Amino acid sequence: MISQNTISQWTIATGVAVLTTAGLLFAFLRCRRKTVYPENMIILHLIPRIREAPNISPFAIKLETFLRMAKLPYQVEYTHKMSPKHKSPWITYNGEVVSDSQFIIEYLNKKFDVDCNSHLTDEQQSIARAMQKMVEENLFWALALSRFVYSYSDPSLRQLIPVPKIIIWRIKRILLSQTYSQGIGRHSRSEVEHIAMGDLKALCDFIGEKKFLMGDKPCETDCAIFGIIAVTKQMPKSSFCTKIIEVWTTVILGHCPEGFN
Predict the structure, then answer these.
(1) Which of 39, 62, 164, 207 allows an S-S link to 227, with CB 3.0 to 4.6 Å?
(2) Higher pLDDT, 223 or 11
(3) pTM, 2 dp
(4) What is the pLDDT of residue 258?
(5) Which CATH architecture has domain 122-253?
(6) pLDDT-derived band at 246, boundaries 50, 70, 90
């Protein structure tokens, strides 16, 4: 004969099993559920903005500046989720996912028949590309080291980027690994700062009195340059970049479009 106590235990066990199964099913369905985005709208996936600048990432600033300059329809989705390539920013357009700011720009140029470099000669486009490679693949790493590694203990860093210290620590560890592999992280702090100063001087000397990199009209590379310049304005007080801003204020701030300053 089954006792009342046994029935109660079975009831509880059955209830727990049902609730557990329901919970797992809900979680599974939730993971499979896809966000429905408006048709023919570029969805720009960005990590959340910070107080001192449009974004912590120069590549996010670069891409959004391009979208504005090209007057393309877009809406922003703030998320910590990365693209399939584990990169941010990234976009979704009519169900298609594209990663990497430069590949995104090239994709949009073809999709919307846009050419922000149409006013440049082949020679000017070559110069612009070389400048872009300098700031994105050399200067960027030096600035990242200055912000998250050399200024790691600077209290003003947490004021500029108000996130838990463990996140800053994680960024620091990742950067140390990435920059060592890239090469620049094998140098001393003074050597890295020397590299950055040389790049910034070359950039500012080339821009000179011009309104934009190649003259009175912006090109794609201006978007990349603005992304990097915006980062120099986010630097902790202990960063060498604060001195750079004082020396080259006119050129640096002059390259910040209205609404982003």
Answers:
(1) 62
(2) 223
(3) 0.80
(4) 47
(5) Up-down Bundle (1.20)
(6) low
Q: What are the start and end residues of each CATH 3.40.30.10 domain in the chain?
A: 42-112
Query: What three-state secondary structure class fits 55?
Result: coil
Tell me how far apart the alpha carbons of residues 183 and 176 are, in angstroms, rounded to a whole number: 10
d(CA 94, CA 107): 13
CATH 1.20.1050.10 in the chain is located at 122-253
Cis peptide before 84 (omega within 30 of 0): no
Cis upstream peptide for 89 (omega within 30°): yes
Distance CA 118, CA 11 (A): 74
Residue type at 141? W
- Over residues 206-223, the pLDDT tens digits come to 998 888 999 999 999 999
> How many C-beta neighbours within 10 Å does residue 254 have?
14
What is the CATH T-level fold of the domain 42-112, as seen in this structure? Answer: Glutaredoxin (3.40.30)
Whether the CB-CB separation of 227 and 61 falls below 8 Å is answered with yes
Closest CA to 252 of 217, 200, 215, 216: 200
Closest by Cα among 107, 108, 133, 109 to 221? 133
Dihedral angle computed from the Cα positions of residues 141, 144, 149 and 150, in that order, rounded to the nearest 10 degrees: 90
- Per-residue pLDDT of 90-131, as tens digits, reads 999 999 999 999 999 999 999 999 999 999 999 999 999 999
Residue holding tokens 């794609």? Answer: 220
In angstroms, the CA 60 to CA 44 distance is 9
